[in-house]
């Protein structure tokens, strides 16, 4: 059953189990991978067959056992999208089983050119968030090189809205933060692979970082599924259910989830006024394997969310109410066929329609604004994978067509907040069609301890701007003979398209130019040159250390400006930018009953004006842009994340997590401050968390404590309870402050949550 997903370097293992006479033998066991932290239990069918698909490239340990037979362990190296056939013969228990397999951990993948941080299903299950829909985002934010700003917006190595989500093989290039689109399916996530450099040529358009999400599970016969329910602070409640029925070669999956909270976005003040949100989703997926060479997948999903925009203190006193709503419907189909042992073909197509609306009541201040936007995106892709000798080849092409619709209306209700030349009212409406195409070819060459990755990609972008470019990708890795040390170096050329959200308005000549530093031109494509080098080390066969130095140079650096505190943003481009930094992560998969990780990131980023695009309103916009070079809004110098887990008993665990940030830049000049006015809007405690002389938000720090216990288990059926207290010390942490490009946002105070999960 060939792999149907175009994922980050993923492959497949087909297992066949026989007895000593060659007869098929039903069996069970577990597949583990130390490098990717994979743990996948399995039970074969009645003829001893099982398929593991969507496996990150690497080395795996396969343990197989059956009643009355001696167990056997095999080491399997997955290096290609082409399936690996593994035949295991189990001798009778009375016979001597010879197993020439070491039990030493395989912490490093000696042939991986870049560093990919993998999050396995156990950590996905243990992750909790005080806000529904943010579990996946919080998992990514725990990795080095990633920073989450207000409202769940992820920034990989300083990039704004250049995160590519790939969910079961479908790229999602639009903004997936809670303020812009319905949540990603947290309850369905089985595994996540996260990449911040050394990108395969297969990926483009958004290339700050790639988040590859797997939602479907290994095939099982009969009816099975899970129910996950939880509640906690801020009136939060969630319920998610998944049911699967599997036949010999087909399976049907139905999922549904609902949630609500009184703290959906990150508010601009501690009071958390007017911040309720509700969300829901329904999905259906069908998976069929009509032959041993073919696989067909069909899926449909409907997600929607409605929420209030949180007010600052003045807005709440005036009685302002702003609401936003978003809905996404997606249908996809995929077919893969293995034409020969050396050729695998994948074809995928999807259609998605996303709409988002904003409206205000009559008491809105300082502006009454409404917005209606959306797009319908059609995507199709063809990819061919082949393995010839030491070459692992992949070529393909895709096309995107997306009719876009945008409308915005505003009416100023407080003239003192805006410069005199700002129009008192404004109406905009437009429709355009985005047409994009790409062709790629990549080859991974393995020769002894040396691995080389060579790729070339061509992109074409046609919306308001017409542009195209070739993007080479080069990577090299060398490993010692023991595979305890891997040295890496790579170069990526990036062709990054502007964010699709509000792109028509941001590029429209109807929007007045406020000063000479805002160019009212179409927002261009961003080009980048990414260089990085690093080392991965296995320490005492117990821990793994990954360290990377990188530099990214951009022309037309992509960013955004936030429309007051509505959470609505508009794409912009700085003339150029330079970002450099270092990422370090120490991973302890298992040391007795302990496991965990610790990471540190250093980053420095500067952008050069003028700015193209955006919607700059308010008198502060003129002053904020009166510089030639400014820090990028994600310029946090020091970021630390750590998590320590202890398996207290066979069925219980506890975990302690620590989060630290040195603080983001503040765009207000110290000599132009009106502290009394800022305190009136955001509160004295929030303002006190800003060091105006240094031009930085003060340091943030939070401790999270969680744990879980398995209450009941019988075969595959189990019931567990998980609980967490986030920000244990109840420290006031400010994420962003009064920024032209980020707005103001306060991180969650101390909060608690409890969830129960039943698997059957």
What does this protein structure show overall?
The structure is a single chain. With 760 residues, the chain is mostly beta strands. 5% of the residues lie in helices and 57% in strands. It contains seven helices and 42 strands. The protein has a 22-stranded antiparallel β-barrel. A five-stranded mixed β-sheet has the order 8-13-14-11-12. A hairpin with a 3-residue loop joins strand 40 and strand 41. The chain is globular. The model is unreliable at 1-7, 96-102 and 513-517 (pLDDT under 50).
Throw out a few tags for this protein.
single chain; 760 residues; mainly beta; five-stranded mixed β-sheet; 5% helix; disordered N terminus
Short characterization:
The protein has 760 residues and is mainly beta. The chain is globular, with a radius of gyration of 26 Å.
């Amino acid at each position: 059953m060939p792999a149907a997903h175009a994922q980050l370097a993923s492959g497949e293992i087909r297992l066949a189990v026989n007895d000593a006479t060659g007869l098929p033998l039903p069996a069970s066991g577990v597949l583990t991978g130390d490098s990717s932290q994979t743990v996948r239990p399995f039970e074969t069918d009645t003829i001893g067959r099982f398929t593991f698909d969507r496996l990150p490239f690497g080395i795996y340990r396969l343990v197989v056992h059956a009643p009355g037979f001696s167990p056997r362990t095999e080491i399997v190296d997955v290096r290609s999208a082409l399936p690996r056939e593994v035949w295991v013969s189990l001798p009778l228990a009375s016979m001597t089983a010879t197993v020439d397999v070491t039990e030493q951990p395989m912490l490093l993948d000696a042939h991986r050119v870049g560093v990919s941080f993998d999050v396995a299903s156990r950590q996905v299950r243990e992750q909790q968030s005080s806000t529904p829909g943010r579990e996946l985002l919080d998992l990514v934010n725990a990795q080095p090189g990633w920073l989450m700003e207000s409202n769940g917006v992820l920034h990989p190595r300083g990039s704004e809205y250049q995160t590519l989500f790939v969910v079961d093989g479908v790229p999602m290039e639009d903004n997936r933060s809670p303020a812009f689109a319905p949540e990603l399916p947290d309850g369905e996530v089985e595994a996540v692979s996260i990449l911040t450099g050394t990108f395969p040529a297969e990926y483009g358009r958004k290339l700050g970082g790639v988040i590859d999400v797997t939602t479907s599970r290994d095939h099982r016969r009969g009816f099975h599924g899970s129910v996950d329910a939880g509640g906690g602070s801020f009136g939060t409640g969630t319920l998610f259910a998944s049911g699967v029925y599997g036949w010999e070669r087909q399976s049907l999956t139905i999922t549904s989830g609902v949630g609500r909270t009184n703290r959906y976005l990150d508010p601009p003040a501690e009071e958390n006024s007017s911040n309720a949100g509700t969300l829901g989703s329904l999905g259906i997926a069908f998976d069929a394997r009509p032959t041993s060479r073919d696989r067909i997948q069909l899926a449909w999903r409907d997600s929607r969310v409605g929420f209030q925009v949180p007010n600052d203190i003045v807005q709440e006193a005036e009685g302002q109410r702003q609401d936003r709503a978003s809905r996404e419907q997606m249908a996809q189909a995929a077919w893969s066929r293995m034409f020969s042992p050396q050729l695998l073909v994948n074809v995928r197509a999807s259609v998605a329609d996303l709409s988002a609306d904003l409206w205000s009541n009559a008491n809105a201040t300082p502006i009454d604004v409404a917005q209606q936007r959306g797009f319908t995106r059609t995507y199709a892709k063809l990819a061919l994978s082949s393995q010839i000798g030491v070459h692992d080849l992949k070529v393909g092409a895709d096309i995107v067509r997306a009719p876009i619709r945008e409308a915005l209306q505003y009416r100023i209700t407080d003239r003192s907040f805006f410069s005199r030349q700002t129009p008192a009212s404004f109406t905009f409406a437009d429709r355009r069609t985005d047409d994009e195409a790409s062709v790629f070819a990549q080859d991974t060459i393995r020769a002894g301890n040396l691995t080389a990755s060579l790729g070339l990609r061509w992109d074409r972008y046609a919306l308001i701007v017409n542009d195209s470019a070739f993007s080479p990708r080069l990577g090299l890795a060398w490993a010692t003979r023991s595979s305890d040390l891997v040295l890496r170096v790579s170069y990526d050329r990036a062709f990054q398209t502007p964010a699709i959200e509000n792109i028509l308005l941001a590029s429209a000549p109807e929007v007045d130019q406020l000063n000479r530093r805002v160019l009212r031109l179409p927002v261009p494509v961003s080009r980048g040159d990414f260089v990085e080098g690093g080392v991965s080390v296995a320490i005492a066969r117990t821990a793994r250390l990954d360290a990377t130095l990188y530099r990214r140079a951009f022309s037309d650096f992509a960013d955004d400006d936030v429309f007051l505190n509505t959470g609505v943003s508009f794409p912009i481009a700085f003339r150029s930018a330079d970002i450099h930094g270092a990422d370090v992560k120490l991973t302890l998969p298992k040391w007795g009953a302990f496991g965990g990780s610790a990471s540190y990131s250093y980053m420095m980023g500067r952008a050069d004006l003028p700015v193209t695009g955006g919607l700059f309103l308010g008198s502060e916009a003129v002053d904020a842009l009166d510089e030639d070079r400014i820090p990028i809004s994600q310029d946090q110098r020091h970021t630390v994340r750590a998590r320590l887990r202890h398996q207290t008993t066979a069925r219980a665990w506890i975990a302690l997590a620590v989060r630290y940030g040195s603080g983001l830049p503040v765009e207000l000049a110290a000599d132009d401050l009106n502290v009394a006015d800022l305190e009136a809007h955001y509160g004295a405690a929030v303002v006190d968390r800003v060091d105006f002389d240094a031009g930085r938000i003060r340091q943030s720090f939070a401790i999270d404590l969680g744990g879980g216990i398995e209450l009941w288990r019988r075969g595959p059926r189990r019931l567990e309870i998980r609980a967490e207290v986030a920000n244990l010390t109840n420290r006031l942490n400010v994420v962003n402050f009064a920024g032209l490009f980020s707005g103001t946002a306060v991180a969650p105070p101390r909060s608690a949550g409890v969830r129960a999960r039943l698997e059957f």
